[in-house]
Amino acid sequence: MDPFALDLIVRGAILGLLTLYLLVLGWTGKGFDAARRAALLAFGVACYAINSSPTLGPGMPEWLARIIIPFTILNPVFQWWFTGALFKDRFPIIGWRLIPAGLLLLNYAIGDLNPFRMAVHASLSIAVFIPVIWLPLQDRSGDLIERRRAIRNVFALAAGSLGIFIMVNEWVTGQVAQQAFALLLMTILFGVAFLARRRDLLAPRPALPEKEARRRMAPEDTHFLDKLSGLMDGGIYREEGLTVARLAEKVGVPEHRLRKIINQGLGYRNFSAFLNERRIDDARVWLENPEHALTPVSGLAYDLGYASLGPFNRAFKDVTGQTPTEFRRQKLADSVKA
C-alpha cells in the first residue's frame, strides 16, 4: 500500500476516535476537571495528528495552522494537567503550573524553528513528561478507587514513557510523520482505560452523608461501617502513619472490602481525604480557641497524626484556602472585633 495512503488511514482512525471521545467526555464529564482536561488533551492530540501528517500538515491554510500548531506544542502540558487531575483529585492550574505552557509558546513565537530551539522545545516537553510518570506512581496505597489503582503503573509506562519516546524520536530524527502508529496506540489505550465502562474515573461521585451511604451499601457491609464509624469517633484518625491496611485490621475486614466501603459507600476517592476531613475539623476547633493563641501549630500537626508540619499546612489550605496560622489569626481578630 502507498505509504501516504496508509498514513491517511491511520490518522483518519485517530481523528475518528478522538472525535468520539470528545463527544463522550462532553456528555458525561460536565463539571469535572479530569473530564475537561481529558477533552482538552484529546483536542490537542487531534491537532498533532493533523499537523504532523505529511499530507495534511503542509497543505494547511495559514489561519488554521495558527490554531492547530499552538495546541500541538502544548500537548505535553495538557497530558500533565490531565494526569494531575486524574490521580491527585485536586490539581488546580494556577501559578507555576502555567509556566511550562508559557515557555513552550514563547519558544514557538520567537520565529522559525532551528536546531537550538527544537532542542529547547524537546527538553521542556520531556521535563513536563517526567511528572506524568511520577504522579501515577505516587500514593498508590492511599487510592481507594480500585480501577484507578489498577491503571497507575500502566498509565505511567504508556503515557509518560511513550510521550518521551515520541519527543526524543522527533528531536533526534527530525521526523514526525512516522509517529502515526504510536499516536493510534495511545488513542486506543486512552479509550480502553477511561471510556470502556470506566467513566467514573473522570466523573467521580460526591461524598455521601453516612445515613445515605448506609442505605445504598450492601447489608453485610453496614456492620463494618458501624465499626469504622466507632473507630473514627474514637480518634483513630489521629494515629500517625495510619494506612488502609492498618485500619482494615482494626475494623476486622479485608483491605479491599474496606476500600470499597469508604469509596463506593462514603464517596471518598483517596484515603488521605477520608482522614483529613476529621483532622481538619479538629484543627479548626483548636485554632479558633483563644487559649491556644500562643501555642505552636507544629504541636497540633503531630497531635493530629501528621508526620511533619508541611503536609498539615497543605491539607489545611486545600480545605480552607488558608494556612493554619492565617486561619487562627483571622479567627482571633474576628473574636476581638466581636
What this model shows, in words?
By secondary structure, this protein is mainly alpha-helical. Helices cover 71% and strands 0% of the residues.
Structure in a nutshell:
The chain has 338 residues and is mainly α.
Write the layout of secondary structure elements.
Layout: H1 3-28, H2 33-51, H3 62-73, H4 75-88, H5 99-109, H6 115-137, H7 146-173, H8 180-194, H9 210-216, H10 219-233, H11 244-251, H12 255-265, H13 271-288, H14 297-303, H15 309-320, H16 324-337
Helix pairs in contact: 1-2, 1-8, 2-3, 2-4, 4-6, 5-6, 6-7, 7-8, 11-12, 13-16
Percentage beta strand: under 5%
Based on DSSP secondary structure assignment, what is the total number of beta strands?
0
Report the mean per-residue pLDDT as an integer.
84
Helix tally? Answer: 16
- Biggest pleated-sheet summary: none
Can you tag this structure with a few keywords?
338 residues, mainly alpha, Arc Repressor Mutant, subunit A, 16 helices, 71% helix, globular
